[in-house]
Amino acid sequence: RALLDDAKSNINDGKIKDGYNKLETARKESQEIVAASVKSYAAKKKEEAKNKIADTEEAISSLPQDKISANPQAKSSFQTATENVEAAKEALKSAEELYDQEKYQDSIKQSEEAIRLADIVVEQKDSLMAMLNKAPANTRSADIDGDDSDSSENSKAPGEGWKTYIVRKKVPSDCLWRIAGYKEHYGNPRLWTRIYKANKAKIKNPDLIYPKQKFDIPPKKGSLKKPKKSVNKPEEKRDKDLADTPKNSNGEESDDSLDSSSGDEESPKNN
Questions:
Q1: In this predicted structure, what is the pLDDT of residue 244?
Q2: Does pTM top 0.85 for this prediction?
Q3: Are strands 163-166 and 214-217 parallel, antiparallel or unpaired?
Q4: Please, are residues 73 and 147 in contact by the beta-carbon 8 Å criterion?
């Protein structure tokens, strides 16, 4: 502040060169102060992300694996949470590399992304525990993140044309634009927004995706809301069986239907 006041005084006194030199000195000093502050903040966020991920991994590992294995929906939800942990670790790795390259602003962004993903996993873990405590082991309930997709790699998702895709670590790196351009998807990079809109819960920034993230790939045309797997209800099956039962002219079940339902698996053979 004093240096700026001196520069202003020099300029008012007509000592333009002296005033300019002092302004330049003040500018450089302020830049150094800002740079030091940004570096310190980047280091702080990096450490925060590291601690968050460690806590998240510990929380995930404490979940009852026997109950998860016995519940298909819980198993799928656990897989999604695990994928988010891996994505958070990839973001932290990027933050550390950028910090070493003195790209502190970019490092801060990656650390914040790692923290965001870790927070999502904490929410998923709490929801998963509630699911396990509420539902029987063989009951399928709604996925904690709204994702009904099969957890198997590169599997077909429910609904005609839906697929899943796991981001790969390769050169050039995967991005939504490239994924949309793959022949097995759309063959048109400009359709990347369909992938983004269908996975908004998993993607904060469409320019930042990470290896091992799993995305739902919607069809080239149509709704971006993934259909749920259809399950035949017992009532529907019963009604269908009744509809298929042969009837006589009076609308009653025929003798043939009674014979077929008697439990005999072998039909009489003609000698």
A1: 53
A2: no
A3: antiparallel
A4: no
Q: Could you give the CA distance from residue 22 to residue 186 in angstroms, rounded to a whole number?
A: 60
Name the H helices within the chain.
2-12, 16-61, 65-70, 72-100, 104-134, 176-181, 192-198, 234-244, 255-260
pLDDT for 203-234, tens place per residue?
878 878 888 888 999 998 888 887 776 545 44
- Residues 174 and 208: their CA atoms lie apart, in Å, by 10
Q: Which two tokens stand for residue 31?
A: 């830049």
**What does the pLDDT look like over 90-108, one tens digit per residue?**
889 999 999 999 888 899 9
Q: Which long-range contacts (CB under 8 A, 24 or more apart) does 36-44 make?
A: 38/104, 38/105, 38/108, 39/102, 39/104, 41/104, 41/108, 42/95, 42/99, 42/104, 42/105, 42/107, 42/108, 42/111, 43/99
* Mean per-residue pLDDT of the chain: 73
Angle at 207 between CA 45 and CA 128, to 5 degrees: 65
Mention every residue, 6+ apart, whose C-beta is less than 8 A from residue 239: none
**In 199-268, where does DSSP find H-type helix?**
234-244, 255-260
Centroid of chain to Cα 182: 20
Look at the chain and count its residues: 271
3 state SS of 121: helix
